[in-house]
Amino acid sequence: MTAVFPRPSITQSTASPWRRTKSALMTSALALALVVAAVPLVLIIAYVLAKGWSSVTTPGWFSGDIPILSRSEGPGMGPAITGTLMITGAATAMAVPLGLLGGIYLNEYSAGSRYGKVIRFFADVMTGVPSIVMGLFVFVIWVLSFGLSAFAGALALGCLMLPIVIRTSEEMLKLVPSELRESAYALGGRKAGTIIRVVLPAAAPGIISGALLAVARAAGETAPLIFTIGFVNQANTSLFNDPNTALSTQIFKNANSVFPGPVARAWGAALTLIGIVFVFTILARIASALLARKHQP
Amino acid sequence: MTAVAAPPTLAGSPRPPGLVTDRVVRVVVFVAGALVLVILALIAYTMINRALPAFRSEGWSYFTSDVWDPARSKYGTLAFTFGTVLVSGIALVLAVPVSVGIALFTTEVAPRWLRKPVTYLVDLLAAVPSVVFGLWGLLVLAPTLPGFYQGWHDLFSGVPLLGSLFDGEPIAQRTFMTAGIVLAIMITPIITSVARETFATVPQSLKDAAHALGATRWEMIRAAVLPHSRGGLTAGILIGLGRALGETIAVALVIGSSPQISAKLFGSGDAAASVIALQWGEASDGTYRAALIGLGVVLFAVTLIVGVVARAIVARTDRHAGGSA
Question: Are the beta carbons of A129 and B208 separated by less than 8 Å?
């Protein structure tokens, strides 16, 4: 515990007016920094809402096909919404279990081992690898042999999510008090059984929160999908066969258009995508709030 | 120690329950952890392999030439490297003071009840997809900028060095500067969160000591918080730099796509990652595609080095903090 002493009042009186003014000025500058960062956030959300709202509320936005003639006006992002959900879902199904297992290795099995340190280090480094590199990588190892598909996109997003899930799971497992493990051992539990029945349930909300943040990050990615899924105008519900499409790649493709129709669809897709991403982010907040409540005595 | 002693071989004694599961789980989790190393190694091997035709046919001029002309099979990437470095530099110059300011405000200045909302707000900025930043940058921000650019240009037009820096020939909407501004917004939450965690590790005793010596709040920050956080801040800046170097989509939409080496911030340019995304569709022939994958290899190598340095600094400062606590 660090005892916080009440600040002696002489501080205020001995500092010269200039020093106090300077301190107040610099402190206000720090607050100003927050405003500087908040302005673009507010502007972006306001513009996406204002410009995307009319597209999203047009009937057929969520179900209709994307117009084949790209400059025509009117709604339809159904295939892209299906694609985004499918690709992100498949990526989650691969990356979250593997990442959780990796996190379990790091926290429960690797104590003091050199492999553990190396893996932790490179998992951190891997979170900094640009997403476009993951896309090119999956293009080289998968698309060249098996063609464009939603699954190829999922592989690229999975590579992005894996290190994030590994590190957040490890951090959450670290929070589980070792007394819990020791009590389970004292009752005759073996290591694996203890982890599965005692440690994982205790850390579950935190792990879910970390996984959801990784999902949110993956759902918004564009660069890895350019090389792996292609473009289509009609929904393709096959995971492994034929090109697919996603909200993010549709935004990228339509943003540069000189026609009003595709630009309106880009704004609508941006609003839909931000909606999906924010839902996952808020769910993650709720999960971690649950964890915080659980750890309060 | 993990050496498992051989179980006593009593004839007919049953295996202890759970022993097999135990061993299987140990192997499975190890394999899952090692997957990180396998993927990184595979990325390096397969992509270098695919990029070799371009490296072979161009030799060193792949890195040293600024002539990128696929029609004549010339693949020199210097202009893209230049653009990437320039744009990331602009982004850091703009984002670092703001990020450090927000982090200091959150940890040292803001009342306790305000800290969590501020953290949420900054995290929300991190949740916005990069393509949405690009869309907004292209359609909303970029059209408003040439006016400001022109003002700066006129202000500094007589000054020797700055005059040519704040120029465009012509001053455009989509420029190095526009890309730098959008990137700065995107990396601010990343640098902020690392800086915030670093400032939170500064011992309260140091701050109390500064106050006890009569320091004002700002003097306390200068004397106690910042010197103690130098390592963590460096790491945070490097992590932000890594993100800026590799950001593709937002930059692709606002940089203007004209490969040129000129330090004119208000003119159009090009950057390595965005070139890959923008030209991928046209690159059907082998060497063209290999040259683009080669750019990916360069990005991978550079971000790997930046990442390793950053994490090594974090690991070292963690040890120091652990030692002094």
Answer: no
Q: H/E/C letters for each residue in chain A? A: CCCCCCCCCHHHHHCCHHHHHHHHHHHHHHHHHHHHHHHHHHHHHHHHHHHHHHHHHCCCCCCCCCCCCCCCCCCCCHHHHHHHHHHHHHHHHHHHHHHHHHHHHHHHHCCCCHHHHHHHHHHHHHHCCCHHHHHHHHHHHHHHHHCCCHHHHHHHHHHHHHHHHHHHHHHHHHCCCHHHHHHHHHCCCCHHHHHHHHHHHHHHHHHHHHHHHHHHHHHCCCHHHHCCCCCCCCCCCCCCCCCCCCHHHHHHHHHCCCCHHHHHHHHHHHHHHHHHHHHHHHHHHHHHHHHHHHHCC
> For residue B69, which phi and psi values (nearest 5 degrees)?
-140, 85
- Smallest Cβ–Cβ distance between A27 and the set B42, B109, B204 belongs to B109
Nearest CA-CA distance, residue A239 and chain B, Å:
22
| Straight-line distance from the first to the last Cα atom of chain B, in angstroms, rounded to the nearest whole number | 28
* Contacts (Cβ under 8 Å, ≥6 apart) of A87: A150, A153, A154, A157, A225, A229, A244, A246
**Does residue B278 contact residue B257 with C-beta atoms inside 8 Å?**
yes
B208·A277 Cβ contact <8 A: no
Q: What is the pLDDT of residues B255-283, one digit of tens each?
A: 887 777 777 888 888 889 999 998 988 88
Burial of B307 from C-beta contacts in 10 A (0-12 / 13-18 / 19+): buried
Residue A214 contacts residue A103 (beta carbons within 8 Å): no
Cα(B175)–Cα(B251) distance, rounded to whole angstroms? Answer: 10
Q: Is B74 helix (H, G, I), strand (E, B) or coil?
A: strand
Q: Which residue type sits at A289? A: A
Rounded distance between C-alpha atoms, residue A82 and residue A62, angstroms? 9
- Mean pLDDT calculated for residue range B102-116: 91
- The shortest C-alpha distance from B158 to chain A (Å) reads 30
Q: How far apart are CA B124 and CA B117, in angstroms?
A: 10
Enter the tokens of residue B238.
């490097």
Please give the pLDDT value at position B10.
Answer: 46
Best CA proximity match to A19, nearest among B224, B105, B215? B215
Token duo for residue A9: 């009042």
Joined tokens for residue B275: 């070139």
Number of Cβ within 10 Å of residue B66's Cβ equals 16
What one-character-per-residue DSSP string does B193-219 give?
Answer: HHHHHHHHTS-HHHHHHHHHTT--HHH
pLDDT of residue A294: 64
**Where do we find the tokens 């709040």?**
B217
Residue type, A264: A
Q: Which secondary-structure segment (H or E) carries B101?
A: helix B78-104
User: CB–CB of A33 and B306 under 8 A?
Assistant: no
Nearest C-alpha neighbor of A63 from the set A77, A50, A53: A77
User: What is the least distance, in Å, from the CA of B69 to any CA of chain A?
Assistant: 21
The values of phi and psi at residue B68, to 5°, are -115, 100
In the structure encoding, which two tokens stand for residue B270, read together?
């090009």
**Confidence bin at B45 (pLDDT 50/70/90):** very high
- Contact (CB<8Å) B277/A223: yes
Q: Mean pLDDT in each 10-residue stretch from start to end of chain A (297 residues)? A: 56 72 91 92 94 88 84 84 94 95 93 88 92 94 92 95 93 90 90 89 88 90 92 86 91 88 92 92 83 62
Interchain contact, A116 vs B33, CB within 8 Å: yes
Amino acid of residue A146:
F
Question: What pLDDT, on a 0 to 100 scale, did the predictor assign at position B146?
Answer: 86
Model confidence at B251: pLDDT above 80: yes
